[in-house]
């Protein structure tokens, strides 16, 4: 296999910069490619445990903190295994050639990966159009799609950037009680991480976001997890008092609140659960201050 970039520590921005002049289209996963893609990712061991085992704790930990140099060195020594190709594409932002792509996706096929929109062509091969990372809990492994970060592309984020899993996502996931519920509302779903968790406790997931791009990534994440979510564009004006998940039938869920107003610059995310009768529900939310 002929990788277009194998040098440890080589900057990853040169080719991706051309490819990412503006936000690329969000991948769409057709039903017939769900199983092949899941099997390709699983069989490559593209899981949290598989990546940690392949890179070692130090390089894997550095990669989680946004330092790609140790991971790049380790991956350069691993030849063209499917896992190494997946890491080059989605973690390092490297271009890989057609042969490498076919090696990493034997069931989906290079044509299938292009059809889904996970890669885009550049002079030297293909680059990833999005971040696709394994994520999981004790009972499941999922893959979460979001926009590539600036460390990977070497470019500033676009205004419509959809964040992947971050520290606040993990904190909210850890804080959220997993009580059985008929229906869970994930406000500000972003890449869909909270909805993924909620699916284990709820019969029905309603996930909203003000960003159409976020909803498209959440749809991809849900499809790859073989989950069905009711995705709706909606704007919540207060993360501390989210709309009741019951009784909403419109395609867009909007809430206006005169109290507990969200100061400008406050980014929020929230999960609310209907706990039984239509009037009973609880919520967990997190908020972070931007621009302070
Ligand atoms: C930081 S991300 C969090 C995503 C995900 N819930 C998580 O835990 O990682 C916040 C998301 O909330 C959405 N959002 C921000 N303000 C919102 C609002 N007022 N109404 C609906 N969605 C909002 C953003 O578009 C973004 O996708």
UniProtKB/TrEMBL annotation:
Residues 12-21 have a biased composition (Polar residues). Residues 237-279 have a biased composition (Low complexity). Residues 1-30, 235-292 are annotated as: Disordered. Residues 43-128 form the DUF7059 domain. Pfam families: DUF7059. It comes from the Bacteria. InterPro entries: DUF7059 (IPR055487), SAM-dependent_MTases_sf (IPR029063). This is DUF7059 domain-containing protein. The lineage of its organism: Bacteria, Bacillati, Actinomycetota, Actinomycetes, Micrococcales.
């Amino acid at each position: 296999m002929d990788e277009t970039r194998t040098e440890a520590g080589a900057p990853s921005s040169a080719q991706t910069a051309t490819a990412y002049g503006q936000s690329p289209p969000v991948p769409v996963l057709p039903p017939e490619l769900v199983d092949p893609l899941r099997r390709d990712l699983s069989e490559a061991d593209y899981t949290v445990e598989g990546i940690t085992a392949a890179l070692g704790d130090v390089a894997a930990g550095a990669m989680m903190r946004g330092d790609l140099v140790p991971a790049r060195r380790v991956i350069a020594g691993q030849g063209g295994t499917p896992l190494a190709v997946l890491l080059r594409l989605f973690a390092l932002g490297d271009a890989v050639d057609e042969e490498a792509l076919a090696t990493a996706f034997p069931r989906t096929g290079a044509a299938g990966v292009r059809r889904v929109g996970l890669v885009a062509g550049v002079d030297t091969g293909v680059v990833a159009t999005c971040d696709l990372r394994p994520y999981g809990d004790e009972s499941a492994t999922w893959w979460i799609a979001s926009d590539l970060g600036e460390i990977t592309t070497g470019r500033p984020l676009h205004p419509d950037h959809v964040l992947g899993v971050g520290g606040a996502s993990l904190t909210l996931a850890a804080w959220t009680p997993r009580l059985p519920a008929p229906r869970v509302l994930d406000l500000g779903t972003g890449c869909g991480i909270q909805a993924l968790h909620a699916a284990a406790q709820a019969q029905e997931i309603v996930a909203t976001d003000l960003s159409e791009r976020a909803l498209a990534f959440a749809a991809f994440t849900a499809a790859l997890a073989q989950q069905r979510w009711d995705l709706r564009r909606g704007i919540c004006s207060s993360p501390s008092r989210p709309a009741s998940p019951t009784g909403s039938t419109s395609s867009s869920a909007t809430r206006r609140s005169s109290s507990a107003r969200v100061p400008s610059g406050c980014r929020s995310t929230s999960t609310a659960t209907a706990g039984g009768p239509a009037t009973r529900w609880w919520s967990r939310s997190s908020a972070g201050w931007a621009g302070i």
